[in-house]
Predict the structure.
Amino acid sequence: MPLINEMDLKKQIKNRMFQRVYFILGEDGFLKHHYVNELCDKVVGNVLPDLNFVKLDGKTLKMQTLSDEVDQLPVMAELRCVLVDDYDFAAKGENEQKDVKQIISDLPESTVLVFFADTIEINYQKPGKWGSFITLVNKVGATVDFSHKDNAALAKILVDSAAKRKVHMDTPTARYMVEICGNDMQNLQTELDKLCSYKKLDVITKDDIDKLASKTVDATVWQLPKAVLTGNTDLSLKTVSDLMALRLDPIVITASLISAYVDAYRVKCALSSGKKATDIADDFGYKNNKFRLTNSVAFANKMSALALRKSLEVLDDADAKLKSSPLNGRTVLERAVILLIEIIRQEQR
């Protein structure tokens, strides 16, 4: 079976139509942990779980141990589940790689083997030394790559999660929370728990989020391009001030602006050619970050290609000055922001 998505895995768990082996990987730690736990719990059920489930540490795993565990029969149950946490196949020698592949190929029908890449980072599109492992897993079972969800999907999860706690949060507010807190599901759930405990049976507002939620550095950085796009000088300079208060290097802040404008320029060119924003994702290596292209559509529609090129020239000049001159970094950054806003205002005249 090829790569499957979250919905496919959810259906398999619900219907107890399990694969012989699973490989769970991806950026979203919350979803990975959630589905690994749900999968293992469902496989084992309530019949002697202490005997029919075993978790093995992939960092110290011996092949003989793995072989013995997968060959054991379940006790008074249909299936036995073996979970291997953080086994780094790519770092192993050729002989051990052959051994683990042999074990996967000869799995008994009474065992479900789950490999869980908890902290190991793997690019499914460019797996490198993981390629033969993934190919075999997909032949015998299934791989699930949990990438970060896009903002719309995350907002829906927040709205639904709040509703289960009998707290109301509308979609625009949920989207704002994602922008403020970032796209890590674990962090979003933690912040939502905090907000729901505070509001109880009431309504969560943007003011509540500003007051209580912890802003992530990445999310705060990406507020600057959005502020600049509004053409609001006060808001943009305040955002710069907030970022400086977080002790971020002006070079890093400028890089976030460059990235946003590059995204917008690429989307502008795509739209001008009659393509969708996401059609160019593979051409520029966006992989699991297609949402960046989707989010750039409004930016691209608001500015001409010429204005975007002028803006990139401003940012290139600022980047060069930050990296080569003794000028105050904040001064260089604020000047660049003001010039970017002036370009946007000229577009609106």
User: Anything to note?
Assistant: The chain has three domains: 6-145, 151-215, 219-348. The longest strand covers residues 80-85. The CA atoms of residues 140 and 237 lie 55 Å apart. The chain has a mean pLDDT of 89.
